[in-house]
Structures are given as C-alpha cells and as structure tokens.
Write a structure and sequence with these properties.
Helix content: over 70%
Shape: rod-shaped
Structural class: mainly alpha
Order of helices and strands: HH
Number of strands: 0
Strand content: under 5%
Radius of gyration: 38 Å
C-alpha cells in the first residue's frame, strides 16, 4: 500500500471514530434528559399524592372537631306551647 492510501485509511478511521463518539454522546445526553424528566414526573406524583393525603387528613380532622364541638340545642315544643 502506498503512503497516501495509508493516510487516507487513517483519516477515514478517525472520522468514523469521531462520528461514533458523537452519536453516542448525543444518545447519552438524550437518555440522561429522558431519565431526569421521568424522575421529575415520579417526584411530582409523589408530592401530589402526599399533598392530597394531607388535605384529606386535615379535612377529616376539621370534620371531627366540628362534630364534637357543634351541638345543636333544640327547644322542646311543649315548653313553647306553654309559654304562648
């Protein structure tokens, strides 16, 4: 093989290696971004679930306090009739 052919093969090999490296780098960045997005979605769902659970617990607590503290005093009808 002539020296020119060897140099051309080395250049083509270097270009192929650079192309493969570039494609793998882009695919790696894409995968990392997709994984980070998935983690954010999972974290958002977990926080939303915790928030709604806290709201439900708070609502149950408020309803429990209202049931204990709200006493309805009704006047007896016979007493109203006697007063009239």
């Amino acid at each position: 093989m002539a020296i020119e052919t060897k140099l051309m093969m080395i250049c083509l090999l270097a270009l192929a290696a650079a192309l493969v490296y570039g494609v793998l780098k882009v695919l790696g960045a894409w995968y990392e971004q997709s994984l980070a997005r998935h983690d954010l979605v999972v974290e958002s769902k977990r926080r939303r679930y915790a928030y709604f659970k806290a709201l439900a617990d708070r609502e149950r607590e408020i309803q429990g306090e209202e049931a204990e503290s709200s006493v309805i005093i009704e006047e007896d009808e016979p007493q109203l009739a006697q007063a009239a």
